[in-house]
Amino acid sequence: MLDVRRLRLLRELAHRQTIAAVAEALTYTPSAVSQQLTALEREAGVPLLERTGRSVTLTPAALRLVEHAETILAVLEQATAELAATRTELTGTLRIGAFATAVHTILSPALVTLSREHPMLELLVTELDPAVAPAALRAETLDIALLQEYDHVPLAPEPGLDTEPMLEETVHLASLRAAGSDSGQDAQAPAKTLAAQSGSLWIAGTPGTLCHEMTVRACLAAGFTPRIRHHADDFATVLALVAAGQGVALVPDLGALSVPGGVRLTPLPTRRRTHLAYRRGTGAHPAIAAARRALHNAVSAHSAGSEADQAAASSRSVAMASRR
C-alpha cells in the first residue's frame, strides 16, 4: 500500500524540483524527505528517482504516480469537505492569501461578512505575491488564495488546484500629465502610447513578482526592453514615484483608486484577471464555500461602486465643459 504522505512529498518534488525546496516548504529536513522518498520507492517496487550527484529527477513511472497522487489527494480533500458539511456550526481556521490591492478593496469587506456570519471561524490572512500562492496552497499553508494573470503573463496550469474567475481590470500607463492638461486621460491611441515610452525610465515591481514580469513582457511586446530605474510593489508608492518624475509605470484599476495630482492614466488594451484558487476537492468545504461567496459579493459591490463613481465623474466633466 502506498503511503499518502509520501505521495504528497513526491508531488511536491515534481513541482519544486529539489529535495531542499520540498523540505523547506513542508518543514521537513532534507534527509527526512530523502528517507521518505526512498521508502516510497520500496513501496512502489520501481525506481522513482534518478540521482546524479546532489540533484534528482523523476522517472517516467514517478511522473505517472504524481498524476495519481493529484487524484488521490483531491479525493481525500473532498471527503474532508463532506465530513465538515455535517457540522451544525462553521468552526476551525481558514487561511487566505491575497495581493495587497485586493486586501484593501475586496478582501477586507469579505472578512467583515465572514466574521459576522461565522463568528467561530478563525480567519488568517497572508499578503503575498500571486506568483507564490499556488505553491502555498499545495503546501497547505493557505486554504484559498487570489491568483492573477495578465494578457502577457497567462496563468500556468495547476493540476492540484481548482480556479474560478473573479475580476477583470484594465491596465493603465501612468505618466506625468502634460503641462496645461486638465484631464487624467490621454487621447493618444493606446497601441502607440506604450511604444512611445521606449526611451523613458520605468518603475516596476520587484524582480520575480508577477507585476515585474508583466511590465517587462508588455514592453517587449511593444518592441523595446524597459529601462527599470525603481522597484516598488505597492502601487501607491509606484504612483508617488511617477508623480515625482521618476519614470512611468503600468498600474491596474485596483492600484489606481487614488491618483496623485499631475499623474495621467492612459488605458491600455492589456487586462489583469484575478481568479479564486483552492485545492482540488475543497470547493464544497463549508469554510471555502463561505469564503467564495463573500469574495464574489465583495467584487460585485466594488464593481457597482466603481461604476457609480465613473458616472458621477462623467457628469462633473460634462457640467464643467458646459460652463466654459
From TrEMBL:
UniProt cross-references to InterPro entries, sorted A to Z: LysR_HTH_N, LysR_subst-bd, WH-like_DNA-bd_sf, WH_DNA-bd_sf
Any single Pfam family the record assigns to this protein: HTH_1
GO molecular function: DNA binding; DNA-binding transcription factor activity
Start and end residues of each stretch annotated as Disordered: 300-324
Domain HTH lysR-type: 2-59
Keywords recorded for this protein, A-Z: Activator, DNA-binding, Transcription, Transcription regulation
GO cellular component, one term: protein-DNA complex
Keyword DNA-binding annotated: yes
Sequence ranges of Low complexity compositional bias: 311-324
Family in the record: Belongs to the LysR transcriptional regulatory family.
Protein name: LysR family transcriptional regulator
